[in-house]
Design goal:
Number of strands: 11
Strand order of the largest sheet: 2-1-3-4-9-8-7-5-6
Radius of gyration: 21 Å
CATH architecture: 3-Layer(aba) Sandwich
Helix content: 10-25%
Number of helices: 8
CATH superfamily: Class I glutamine amidotransferase (GATase) domain
Strand content: 25-35%
CATH class: Alpha Beta
Order of helices and strands: EHHHEHHEHEHEEEEEHEE
Largest sheet: 9 strands, mixed
Structural class: alpha/beta
């Protein structure tokens, strides 16, 4: 693919306004930090940012139609995301747009619409524990540039069971200091679109400043990018035309008559 990748980033951007510690780590917001490292990659073109406050305008249908990959970070305000925007995002994924969901975005409306299950079902605690990620799919495009394993010094703890459909691919598996394990990097395909979920990214730690996490997200954007921004599909229907015409025989059978 010769053209550059158009990326949109949604960040709830609630904690940055309310918590000094979060604002100190991400003075431009989590979306600003993600934009900062993505725009350094030569394969990335236009980057747009949206927050909960303005998402009805900044994630309009026109913007989504021009987006190759949408990166989504949400946490405590999932319920305030407009249902129409969530449905439009899900529809664009079905038509080919990539979706990269980060951390608590497992509870977002678009993710739940696309996966069709209760993704809130997991163990968690906020204890700032060390987490070690293991690369399960070493040859996958998302894991390129990483070693067999690396450590995030502090993160919110997630643990199995995780209420998701069986992933198409398990890219990363995490072990937390308190003993939990978690499927922390998973992919799915829905319609023509690709979805990647990455667990890491609690807002009170500088996780999106870490090289390995930046590499994963950059790789995921490239992996999820469709060849074309719009991939219209023939979804069929009850009156879909037959490929062959048939004539009724005297004995009650049908003889196919090939068209063309």
């Amino acid at each position: 693919m010769n053209r550059k990748i158009n990326v949109s980033i949604y960040n709830e951007c609630q904690h940055e306004h309310e918590v000094d510690a979060v604002r100190a780590i991400y003075p431009q917001g989590i979306h600003g930090a993600i934009r900062g490292f993505l725009e350094k990659d030569g394969a990335i073109g236009t980057i747009r940012c949206a927050t909960l406050q303005d998402h009805r305008e900044t994630l309009s249908q026109a913007v989504l139609d021009d987006t190759d990959v949408l990166v989504w970070w949400g946490h405590i305000k999932h319920h305030e995301v407009d249902d129409k925007v969530a449905a439009a995002v899900a529809g664009r994924v079905i038509d080919g747009m990539g979706l990269v969901v980060l951390h608590s975005g497992h509870g977002s409306k678009p993710f739940q619409l696309l996966l069709g299950t209760d993704t809130y079902n997991l163990r968690w605690r906020e204890a700032g524990e060390k987490v070690r990620l293991w690369t399960i799919a070493k040859n996958h495009p998302i894991s390129q540039g990483l070693g067999e394993t690396f450590v995030v010094p502090h993160d919110e703890t997630y643990g199995e069971p995780f209420g998701i459909p069986q992933p198409d691919e398990l890219i990363f598996l995490s072990w937390f200091q308190g003993g939990e394990v978690f499927r922390s990097g998973c992919t799915w395909r829905r319609g023509e679109g690709k979805i990647f979920y990455l667990q890491n990214g609690h807002e009170t730690f500088p996780i999106y400043h870490q090289r390995e996490i930046q590499q994963i997200i950059t790789n995921a954007v490239k992996w999820a990018c469709p060849v074309a921004r719009s991939c219209p599909r023939d979804r069929g229907g009850p009156n879909a035309a037959a490929l062959e015409a048939y004539t009724l025989e005297d004995g009650g059978g049908f003889t196919p008559v090939t068209r063309g």
